[in-house]
Specification:
By secondary structure, the protein is an alpha/beta fold. The chain has a single domain, classed as Rossmann fold (3-Layer(aba) Sandwich), CATH 3.40.50.720. 38% of the residues lie in helices and 17% in strands. It has six helices and nine strands. The strands form two sheets. A seven-stranded parallel sheet has the order 3-2-1-4-7-8-9, sandwiched between helices. Strands 5-6 form a two-stranded antiparallel sheet. Strand 2, helix 2 and strand 3 form a beta-alpha-beta unit. Helix 4 runs parallel beside helix 5. The longest helix has 28 residues. The chain is globular and about 50 Å long. The relative contact order is 0.14. The structure holds NADP nicotinamide-adenine-dinucleotide phosphate. NADP nicotinamide-adenine-dinucleotide phosphate (NAP) binds next to helix 1.
């Protein structure tokens, strides 16, 4: 049984990851911003699911969580935001405050969470720090939309790639995973795959991440992603 900590566990891909890890017999520390409103997640709470309030963009909230977690085998930075409305994050029309907030959620928060849980990851077995990124962060994707979102995911890719080099000495692997285009609030109802399919694929990909391939950028289906 592994100890797994997931952010943004109240809905979408994070909720489905929580369900599937618990069904497989693991323990999940499931984090979300508003536990009292997380009905679907609270329905899973029990011996193997502990629900925690966590605002990943808030340093005090992240530090408080870290005091209650002693050991993590797999950390999944899943919480993420699409940012301002598409027409307000284009090359010629930008909500700059919204862009900064998108960076805060998608880029700064994942590193803040890893830093706070570094002692717990060092206590883990073959520990892994995983971030759910996006194909939209790939530099070779010439699709000029969602500038705030795309740049925040490109930046978290670089941050985690660098971190992978540093954490090898602690036997902690770092991985980036594009979850596919997924039927969630973010991906919309016409997306290509269900949250169940995405989560199942992500779990298989995480199984294959180790210090041997740390710093990898993978797709949910096991293929390597271009940077
Ligand atoms: N769906 C896709 O097609 C797709 C494609 C590529 C990458 N992704 C990535 O996959 C991850 C999960 O997305 P999803 O599809 O499951 O989306 P989702 O259903 O919209 O869920 C997003 C999760 O992130 C949390 N979140 C949103 N804004 C936040 C903020 N400002 N601070 C902290 N947490 C926040 C949400 O919590 P609240 O309920 O509290 O808002 C929720 O738990 C994200 O990192 C996303 O970028 C998704």
């Amino acid at each position: 049984m592994a100890n797994i900590l997931i952010t943004g566990a109240n809905r979408g891909i994070g909720l489905e990851l929580t369900k599937q890890y618990v069904q497989a017999g693991h323990h999940v520390d499931a984090c979300c911003r508003n536990p009292s409103g997380a009905d679907d997640l609270n329905a899973l709470a029990g011996d193997n699911v502990a629900v925690h309030g966590l605002i990943p963009t808030d340093a005090a909230s992240v530090a408080a969580l870290a005091t209650s977690i002693s050991s993590v085998d797999i950390l999944i930075n899943n919480a993420g935001a699409a940012g301002p409305a598409p027409e307000q994050q284009s090359g010629l029309s930008m909500d700059f405050d919204g862009w900064l907030e998108t960076f805060n959620v998608n880029t700064l928060a994942p590193l803040r969470v890893v830093q706070a849980l570094h002692p717990a990851l060092k206590e883990g077995t073959d520990a892994k720090a995983i971030t759910i990124t996006s194909q939209m962060g790939a530099l070779d994707l010439n699709w000029p939309v969602m500038y705030a979102y795309c740049s925040s995911k490109a930046a978290v890719n670089k941050v985690m790639r660098m971190l992978s080099v540093e954490l090898v000495k602690d036997n902690i692997a770092v991985g980036l995973i594009h979850p596919g285009h997924v039927q969630t609030d973010m991906g919309g109802p016409n997306a290509e795959i269900t949250a169940q399919e995405s989560a199942s694929g992500i779990i298989s990909v995480i199984d294959g991440i180790s210090t041997d391939n740390t710093g990898c950028f993978m797709k949910w289906n096991g293929e390597t992603h271009n940077w």
